[in-house]
Amino acid sequence: MSENKPDIEERWTDPDDAPEWTDEHFRHAQLSIGGKVVREAIGTWTRPGRPVSENPKKQVTLRLDPDVVEKFRATGKGWQSRINAELRKALGI
After folding, report:
1. DSSP state of 5
2. In terms of C-beta density within 10 A (0-12 exposed, 13-18 middle, 19 or more buried), how is residue 72 classed?
3. Confidence at residue 6, expressed as pLDDT on a 0 to 100 scale
4. Are residues 66 and 93 in the same domain?
5. pLDDT means per 10 residues in the chain (93 residues)?
6. Which of 39, 47, 56, 92 meets the CB 3.0–4.6 Å disulfide criterion with 31?
7. What's the domain range around 38?
8. Are 68 and 41 in a shared domain?
9. Taking the model in full, what pTM does it have?
10. 24 inside domain
11. What integer pLDDT is reported at residue 48 of this predicted model?
């Protein structure tokens, strides 16, 4: 009996068939000078990433009671933003 093996061989793509770069692609691409990365890439070819925020959020580590986290997570996507909104409301800002 023969074995079913997953197809792990990468398919060859002709570089001449590659899509043409647009100005938008160049704006999001990694920029290197002399082998040193000057600007990291933003997003990917098909998903350019988010625009840069004027007021970016700060990443923090915060310990919350499990029931609080579960309750917010149960509200669905965007639960972390809702925690932020509740904190702002509690602080009067």
Report:
1. -
2. middle
3. 67
4. yes
5. 66 78 87 92 74 86 95 95 96 96
6. 39
7. 16-48
8. no
9. 0.47
10. yes
11. 66
69 is a domain residue: yes
Any bridge partners for residue 32, and if so which?
37
- In this structure, what token pair is assigned to residue 84? 């932020």
For 31-87, give the DSSP string. Answer: EEETTEEEE---S-SS---PPPPSS----------HHHHHHHHTT-TTHHHHHHHHH
Taking the C-alpha atoms of residue 23 and residue 28, their distance in angstroms, rounded to an integer, is 9
Measured between alpha carbons, how far is 24 from 5 in angstroms, rounded to an integer?
A: 40
35, 64: one domain: no
At residue 17, the pLDDT reads 79
Write the CB contacts of 14 (distance below 8 Å, at least 6 apart in sequence): none
Q: Is residue 65 located within the same domain as residue 91?
A: yes
Residue 8 lies in a domain: no
> How far is residue 81's CA from residue 85's CA, in Å, rounded to a whole number?
6
Q: What is the pLDDT of residue 74?
A: 96
Q: What is the pLDDT of residue 50?
A: 73
Domain count of the fold of the chain: 2
